[in-house]
Recover the amino acids of this structure.
């Protein structure tokens, strides 16, 4: 499928929020519309990306896992999963999944010379499409633990509200014991009453991008199913093993995105 410049894309809007260059006018309009209602929203993208880097570094350094399935990889930016992982273990395998044509084009160009990193075009909300994909199966050994990443993805699922937990359960069923998942999601910190979360959600969903749901902490916790949560559990990303002590209070954006890491026993 080609690129439609009249439609905003999740990956390009996220890139615009992160200050990247791989976005179009329509994407910047979505970003700016959200920013007028929720000025802190750009910071949510940064929080999310920082969590990706911290959680992936933790998985690479501490679990011994050597295969990573990164669902919804996004456009290449400063620090991507394969760079974080392969700095720890140069032979670790990383398979990225995305379905955005711009992500696929940029990613393939970036990865041309990396034998241990692959990019696959599949629907991350259809677990069987990902898990039974021939290229995925050629690079990932399903008899050994896998690190599954669903970072900043499930809030863009626009189907029934209870479906994301079921989607994740179908992934978990197929993961070998000892596998890990890292996941993040937009948080409505006061259960439907947080003005910034409401305003940002309205703007995202009624924009040419069309998605961006804020869920409660309980709903986000349910996305981990029966897995064992790694300390400190499901929490605001700003509080998930930061690099140092907190000297400043959380800002509005930091209150609106949560996640965690869990292990399949
Ligand atoms: N995981 C990265 C991160 O946290 O920095 C990127 C997150 S970005 C907000 C979400 C990504 O998911 C985008 O690149 C988008 O193209 C991809 N995505 C959304 N829906 C998808 C689907 N149904 N199948 C595959 N990729 C999808």
């Amino acid at each position: 499928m080609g690129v439609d410049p009249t439609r905003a894309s999740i990956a390009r809007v996220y890139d615009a929020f992160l200050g990247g260059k791989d976005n179009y006018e329509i994407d910047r309009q979505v970003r700016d519309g959200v920013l007028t209602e929720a000025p802190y929203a750009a910071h949510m993208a940064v929080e999310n990306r920082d969590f990706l880097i911290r959680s992936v570094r933790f998985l690479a350094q501490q679990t011994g896992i050597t295969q990573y399935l990164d669902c919804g990889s996004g456009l290449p930016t400063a620090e991507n999963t394969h760079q974080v992982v392969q700095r720890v273990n140069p032979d670790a395998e990383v398979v990225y999944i995305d379905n955005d044509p711009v992500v696929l084009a940029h990613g393939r160009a970036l990865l041309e010379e990396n034998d241990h990193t692959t990019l696959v075009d599949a629907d991350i909300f259809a677990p069987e499409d990902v898990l039974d994909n021939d290229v995925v199966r050629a690079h990932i050994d399903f008899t050994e633990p896998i690190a599954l990443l669903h970072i900043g993805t499930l809030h863009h699922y626009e189907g029934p509200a209870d479906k994301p937990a079921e989607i994740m359960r179908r992934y978990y069923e197929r993961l070998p014991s000892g596998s890990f998942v890292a996941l993040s999601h937009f948080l409505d910190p006061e259960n439907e009453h947080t003005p910034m979360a409401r305003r940002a959600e309205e703007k995202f969903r009624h924009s040419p991008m069309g998605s961006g749901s804020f869920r409660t902490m309980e709903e986000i916790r349910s996305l981990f199913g029966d897995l064992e949560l790694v300390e400190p559990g499901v929490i605001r990303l700003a509080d998930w093993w930061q690099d140092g002590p907190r000297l400043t209070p959380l800002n509005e954006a930091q209150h609106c995105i949560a996640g965690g890491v869990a292990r399949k026993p």
In short: The CA atoms of residues 13 and 53 lie 20 Å apart. The pocket of S-adenosylmethionine is lined by residues 10-11, 14, 48-49, 52, 72-74, 97-100, 103, 123-125, 151-153, 156 (CB under 6 Å).
